[in-house]
């Protein structure tokens, strides 16, 4: 594998790892339309500020979100709308897979009932 491709794959994997936590996906979902303060996010998501802050820090370090200070409050926003698009696309893939599996299960159960 070419060295530059290896670097790209490694960086891609790092971004996927950052997005691989349910709370971080929820953060993206909440921030998709507008910025929010950390306190507002914590209330909406019903998580502690400390826990939220830890996840926001990881996302910020990896360029998923950015923050701006207004007085004593930090407001977070998504750095690139393509992050939201990527999460939506993966959700669609997951939902299609779940739907497909449900259909297969129902077909198998119906076949089993006919064979009984």
> Which sequence of SSEs, written as H and E, runs from N to C?
HHEHHEEH
Strand order of the largest sheet: 1-3-2
Indicate the mean pLDDT: 92
Structural class: alpha+beta
Biggest sheet features: 3 strands, antiparallel
- As a percent range, the share of helical residues equals over 70%
CATH-derived architecture: Orthogonal Bundle
Give the N-to-C terminal Cα separation. Answer: 54 Å
Enumerate the spans where pLDDT stays under 50 for 5 or more consecutive residues: none
Question: Can you tell me the overall shape?
Answer: flat
Number of helices: 5
Strand fraction equals 5-15%
Write out the CATH superfamily name. Winged helix-like DNA-binding domain superfamily/Winged helix DNA-binding domain
> Any idea of the CATH class?
Mainly Alpha
Rg, nearest Å = 20 Å
Structure overview:
This protein is of the alpha+beta class and 116 residues long. It has one domain: Arc Repressor Mutant, subunit A (Orthogonal Bundle). Helices cover 71% and strands 12% of the residues. It is built from five helices and three strands. It has a three-stranded antiparallel sheet with strand order 1-3-2. A hairpin with a 2-residue loop joins strand 2 and strand 3. It is flat and about 70 Å long. The mean pLDDT is 92.
Short description:
The chain has 116 residues and is of the alpha+beta class.
């Amino acid at each position: 594998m070419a060295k530059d491709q290896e670097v790209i794959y490694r960086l891609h994997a790092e971004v996927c790892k950052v997005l691989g936590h349910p709370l971080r996906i929820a953060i993206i979902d909440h921030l998709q339309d507008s910025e929010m303060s950390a306190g507002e996010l914590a209330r909406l998501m019903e998580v502690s500020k400390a826990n939220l802050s830890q996840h926001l820090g990881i996302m910020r370090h990896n360029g998923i979100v950015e923050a701006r200070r207004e007085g004593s409050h930090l407001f977070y926003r998504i750095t690139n709308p393509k992050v939201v698009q990527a999460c939506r696309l993966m959700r669609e893939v997951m939902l299609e897979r779940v739907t497909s599996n449900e259909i297969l299960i129902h077909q198998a159960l119906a076949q089993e009932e006919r064979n009984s």
